[in-house]
From TrEMBL:
Name by which UniProt lists this protein: Putative 8-amino-7-oxononanoate synthase
Molecular functions per Gene Ontology: 5-aminolevulinate synthase activity; pyridoxal phosphate binding
Family note: Belongs to the class-II pyridoxal-phosphate-dependent aminotransferase family.
GO BP terms: tetrapyrrole biosynthetic process
PANTHER family: 2-AMINO-3-KETOBUTYRATE COENZYME A LIGASE, MITOCHONDRIAL (PTHR13693:SF102), CLASS II AMINOTRANSFERASE/8-AMINO-7-OXONONANOATE SYNTHASE (PTHR13693)
InterPro entries from the UniProt entry: 4pyrrol_synth_NH2levulA_synth, Aminotransferase_I/II_large, AON_synthase_class-II, PyrdxlP-dep_Trfase, PyrdxlP-dep_Trfase_major, PyrdxlP-dep_Trfase_small
Cofactor: pyridoxal 5'-phosphate
Domain Aminotransferase class I/classII large residues, every copy: 57-398
A Pfam family assignment: Aminotran_1_2
Superkingdom assignment: Bacteria
Keyword tags: Acyltransferase, Transferase
Amino acid sequence: MSTDNATIELNLDRELRVLFENRLTQLKSEGLYRSFMPCEHDAGHPGTTRYQQRQVEVWCSNDYLGLSQDPQVIDSLRESAALHGSGTGGSRNIAGTSISHVELERQLAQWHGKEQALVFNGGYTANFEFLSTLIAAVPDLAIFSDSLNHRSLIEGIRRHPCQKYIFPHNDVETLEKQLASVPLSQPKLIVFESIYSMDGDIAPIQVILDLADRYQAWTFLDETHAIGLYGASGAGLCEEIEETRATFIQGVFGKAMGTLGGYIAGPASVVDFVRSSAPGFIFTTALPQALLDATLCSFDRVRTDRQLVQDLHSNVIFFRAQLDLAGIPYLPAQSHLVLVPVAGAERIKTVARRLLDEFDIYVQPINYPSVPRGGERFRLTVGPRRSHEEIQRFVAALKHCLA
């Protein structure tokens, strides 16, 4: 390599490093730099973690039912790992499809009343890969997407060029106008969520499905934050309202199920096509059988032991009542999620830091781009095993740090 070329490479490397140092400085100045808290979750004490040799209560976990720390689920993981090892050694088409994958997919399809289900390594991957593969395969497909859809849905829709319509959040009147503007014979897909996690509100599912029938549209419903918590057997809000018309249902295992992974359930021909076509599915090492066996155990718990869900919803009611008594405002969410506004990126970080330093309580600030600037908030969750005394102590600590 010549001296000139070496100098050019050195200068380019230096310029790129400076570019990213400046980007990081900007993120920090805007209060958008993300700091992670290294911790050790405590299976013996659900809802707690070890941080810097201290036991800390976690009040923002998506492990809604505490099943990631459930003894039966842990035993299933341990026993299966002893039998099958810690990994699969390949993708689903290279000896990575275990009998537990097949059984879980069978049960998921049956649970949602669909022809077939497909397990992915995560909820984000499920949304992105399924939608992007579907859009690429259907000529002239028109997409109708709620403005507050999760980033995984948005990126899946953006991946390939298509006719896109964004309707204001839960605005069914605008959605109908958009649907009416497209020829009845043109393929259409409405993409929305059942529970929107940053506001805790619920979609008008039946109205949207009525519109889908009227305008001959398919529907893709993300039930991420409803799976395990709503419906007689925990199948989500569609089951809760006895609705079966959604074309595709997406769910995850990393929230109420307490493990890891995501899935899509829907018509067999479409799901099978995605199974054979989605690059993020085909070229990814499969989830280990031990994890799938733990998920099957958790899945069984969710469907048969509804006491955990009843206790969670009871605690949410008590939690909101205590916030009312303390004069702490929260968003009027319809779901189990409790959203407490704390405007200002720096202010919410300060409150979160005080809760951790003074009370051994961890809550993660939610700020831009997850919510608009000025709309910063805490997304609080209260597990079924929390006592009323713990809830009252948390509310008192939050009131103190907000003052």
